[in-house]
Specification:
Layout: E1 3-6, H1 8-26, E2 36-42, H2 46-53, E3 60-62, E4 65-68, E5 80-82, H3 86-89, E6 93-101, H4 105-115, E7 121-129, E8 142-146, E9 153-154, E10 170-172
Parallel strand pairs: 2-3, 2-4, 2-6, 6-7, 7-8
Antiparallel strand pairs: 1-10, 4-5, 9-10
Helix pairs in contact: 1-2
Subcellular location: Cytoplasm
InterPro entries: HGPRT (IPR050408), Hxn_phspho_trans (IPR005904), PRTase-like (IPR029057), PRTase_dom (IPR000836)
EC number: 2.4.2.8
Length: 178
Protein backbone atom coordinates (compact mmCIF):
# COMPACT_ATOMS: atom_id res chain seq x y z
CA UNK A 1 0.00 0.00 0.00
CA UNK A 2 1.28 3.46 -0.83
CA UNK A 3 -0.54 5.57 1.74
CA UNK A 4 -3.61 6.19 3.87
CA UNK A 5 -5.97 8.54 2.04
CA UNK A 6 -8.69 8.85 4.70
CA UNK A 7 -8.19 7.87 8.33
CA UNK A 8 -10.65 6.01 10.51
CA UNK A 9 -11.48 9.29 12.28
CA UNK A 10 -12.04 11.19 9.01
CA UNK A 11 -14.36 8.45 7.76
CA UNK A 12 -16.33 8.38 11.03
CA UNK A 13 -16.87 12.14 10.86
CA UNK A 14 -17.98 11.92 7.23
CA UNK A 15 -20.42 9.07 7.97
CA UNK A 16 -21.89 11.14 10.82
CA UNK A 17 -22.36 14.12 8.48
CA UNK A 18 -23.96 11.96 5.77
CA UNK A 19 -26.35 10.41 8.32
CA UNK A 20 -27.45 13.87 9.44
CA UNK A 21 -28.01 15.01 5.83
CA UNK A 22 -29.96 11.87 4.94
CA UNK A 23 -32.06 12.04 8.11
CA UNK A 24 -32.90 15.71 7.51
CA UNK A 25 -33.84 15.08 3.88
CA UNK A 26 -36.02 12.00 4.48
CA UNK A 27 -37.66 13.01 7.80
CA UNK A 28 -40.71 14.58 6.10
CA UNK A 29 -40.88 11.80 3.47
CA UNK A 30 -40.83 8.56 5.47
CA UNK A 31 -42.55 7.05 8.50
CA UNK A 32 -42.60 3.86 10.54
CA UNK A 33 -45.29 2.53 8.18
CA UNK A 34 -43.35 3.64 5.07
CA UNK A 35 -39.65 3.61 6.02
CA UNK A 36 -36.72 4.62 3.87
CA UNK A 37 -35.45 1.55 2.02
CA UNK A 38 -31.67 1.39 2.13
CA UNK A 39 -30.03 -0.64 -0.62
CA UNK A 40 -26.39 -1.29 0.28
CA UNK A 41 -24.42 -2.65 -2.67
CA UNK A 42 -22.53 -5.74 -1.56
CA UNK A 43 -19.86 -6.48 -0.82
CA UNK A 44 -17.99 -3.18 -0.72
CA UNK A 45 -20.60 -1.02 1.01
CA UNK A 46 -21.32 -3.34 3.94
CA UNK A 47 -19.10 -1.57 6.50
CA UNK A 48 -20.13 1.92 5.39
CA UNK A 49 -23.80 0.90 5.48
CA UNK A 50 -23.57 -0.63 8.94
CA UNK A 51 -21.95 2.51 10.35
CA UNK A 52 -24.41 4.80 8.55
CA UNK A 53 -27.57 2.90 9.55
CA UNK A 54 -26.72 3.19 13.24
CA UNK A 55 -26.60 6.97 12.98
CA UNK A 56 -29.78 7.59 10.98
CA UNK A 57 -32.71 9.09 12.87
CA UNK A 58 -35.43 8.09 10.37
CA UNK A 59 -37.15 4.69 10.10
CA UNK A 60 -35.37 2.38 7.68
CA UNK A 61 -35.65 -1.03 6.08
CA UNK A 62 -32.55 -2.65 4.59
CA UNK A 63 -32.51 -4.72 1.39
CA UNK A 64 -29.16 -5.80 0.02
CA UNK A 65 -28.07 -5.55 -3.61
CA UNK A 66 -25.26 -7.67 -4.95
CA UNK A 67 -23.25 -6.23 -7.82
CA UNK A 68 -19.97 -7.68 -8.95
CA UNK A 69 -17.77 -6.69 -11.83
CA UNK A 70 -14.16 -6.80 -10.64
CA UNK A 71 -13.88 -10.52 -9.72
CA UNK A 72 -10.25 -11.01 -8.67
CA UNK A 73 -8.62 -8.13 -10.54
CA UNK A 74 -8.51 -4.37 -10.74
CA UNK A 75 -10.26 -3.96 -14.11
CA UNK A 76 -14.04 -3.91 -14.30
CA UNK A 77 -15.69 -6.66 -16.33
CA UNK A 78 -19.24 -7.82 -17.03
CA UNK A 79 -21.66 -6.87 -14.27
CA UNK A 80 -23.55 -9.47 -12.29
CA UNK A 81 -26.52 -7.91 -10.50
CA UNK A 82 -28.93 -9.33 -7.90
CA UNK A 83 -31.79 -6.99 -6.89
CA UNK A 84 -34.69 -7.77 -4.51
CA UNK A 85 -38.13 -8.31 -6.09
CA UNK A 86 -39.97 -5.36 -7.56
CA UNK A 87 -43.00 -5.86 -5.32
CA UNK A 88 -40.87 -5.11 -2.23
CA UNK A 89 -39.63 -1.82 -3.72
CA UNK A 90 -42.61 -0.42 -5.64
CA UNK A 91 -43.78 2.92 -4.25
CA UNK A 92 -40.96 3.10 -1.69
CA UNK A 93 -38.30 5.76 -1.14
CA UNK A 94 -35.07 4.00 -2.15
CA UNK A 95 -31.53 5.04 -1.26
CA UNK A 96 -28.66 3.14 -2.87
CA UNK A 97 -25.61 2.97 -0.60
CA UNK A 98 -22.30 2.62 -2.43
CA UNK A 99 -18.76 2.45 -1.13
CA UNK A 100 -17.35 4.23 -4.19
CA UNK A 101 -18.59 5.64 -7.47
CA UNK A 102 -15.85 5.04 -10.01
CA UNK A 103 -16.76 4.79 -13.72
CA UNK A 104 -20.44 4.96 -12.85
CA UNK A 105 -21.26 1.92 -14.99
CA UNK A 106 -22.35 -0.30 -12.11
CA UNK A 107 -24.61 2.26 -10.45
CA UNK A 108 -26.07 3.24 -13.85
CA UNK A 109 -27.20 -0.34 -14.38
CA UNK A 110 -28.52 -0.55 -10.82
CA UNK A 111 -30.50 2.67 -11.36
CA UNK A 112 -32.00 1.35 -14.58
CA UNK A 113 -33.09 -1.88 -12.89
CA UNK A 114 -34.52 -0.07 -9.85
CA UNK A 115 -36.46 2.47 -11.92
CA UNK A 116 -38.34 -0.47 -13.42
CA UNK A 117 -39.56 -1.21 -9.86
CA UNK A 118 -41.47 2.11 -9.86
CA UNK A 119 -40.16 3.56 -6.57
CA UNK A 120 -41.57 6.75 -5.01
CA UNK A 121 -38.02 8.15 -5.19
CA UNK A 122 -34.57 6.85 -6.00
CA UNK A 123 -31.33 8.45 -4.77
CA UNK A 124 -27.67 7.52 -4.38
CA UNK A 125 -25.38 7.94 -1.39
CA UNK A 126 -21.69 7.15 -1.80
CA UNK A 127 -18.95 7.37 0.77
CA UNK A 128 -16.36 7.97 -1.95
CA UNK A 129 -16.50 9.61 -5.36
CA UNK A 130 -13.77 9.11 -7.95
CA UNK A 131 -14.76 11.49 -10.78
CA UNK A 132 -11.49 11.05 -12.72
CA UNK A 133 -12.71 7.71 -14.11
CA UNK A 134 -16.37 8.59 -14.67
CA UNK A 135 -17.81 7.44 -18.00
CA UNK A 136 -21.52 7.47 -17.01
CA UNK A 137 -23.19 10.64 -15.79
CA UNK A 138 -24.23 10.02 -12.18
CA UNK A 139 -26.00 12.41 -9.83
CA UNK A 140 -25.18 11.75 -6.19
CA UNK A 141 -27.75 13.03 -3.71
CA UNK A 142 -25.36 12.41 -0.82
CA UNK A 143 -21.60 12.23 -1.27
CA UNK A 144 -18.88 11.88 1.29
CA UNK A 145 -15.25 12.12 0.25
CA UNK A 146 -13.52 12.56 -3.11
CA UNK A 147 -10.66 10.47 -4.45
CA UNK A 148 -8.45 12.69 -6.60
CA UNK A 149 -7.00 11.14 -9.74
CA UNK A 150 -7.11 7.51 -10.79
CA UNK A 151 -6.11 5.68 -7.62
CA UNK A 152 -7.09 2.13 -6.67
CA UNK A 153 -8.36 2.25 -3.10
CA UNK A 154 -8.87 -0.44 -0.48
CA UNK A 155 -10.10 -0.68 3.08
CA UNK A 156 -13.33 0.15 4.90
CA UNK A 157 -15.07 -2.61 2.95
CA UNK A 158 -13.30 -2.12 -0.38
CA UNK A 159 -11.03 -4.84 -1.61
CA UNK A 160 -8.48 -6.09 -4.07
CA UNK A 161 -9.23 -9.75 -4.85
CA UNK A 162 -11.21 -10.06 -1.58
CA UNK A 163 -8.30 -8.74 0.51
CA UNK A 164 -8.01 -5.60 2.66
CA UNK A 165 -11.77 -5.10 3.36
CA UNK A 166 -11.07 -5.19 7.11
CA UNK A 167 -8.83 -2.11 7.14
CA UNK A 168 -10.45 0.67 9.22
CA UNK A 169 -9.23 3.38 6.82
CA UNK A 170 -9.21 4.01 3.06
CA UNK A 171 -5.82 3.54 1.52
CA UNK A 172 -4.26 3.60 -1.91
CA UNK A 173 -2.59 0.43 -3.13
CA UNK A 174 -0.04 0.05 -5.88
CA UNK A 175 -1.72 -2.60 -8.02
CA UNK A 176 1.55 -3.31 -9.81
CA UNK A 177 2.82 -5.08 -6.69
CA UNK A 178 -0.18 -7.38 -6.46
Amino acid sequence: MNKVLYSEEEIALQVQQLAAQISDYYAPRVSIAEPLVLLPVLKGAFIFSADLVRQLTVPVRVEFLRASSYRSGTVSGALELDIPGASALRGQHLLILEDIIDTGKTVSQILMALRACEPASLQICALLDKPARRVSAIELAFCGLTIAGDRFVIGYGMDLAERYRELPYVGEIDTCTF
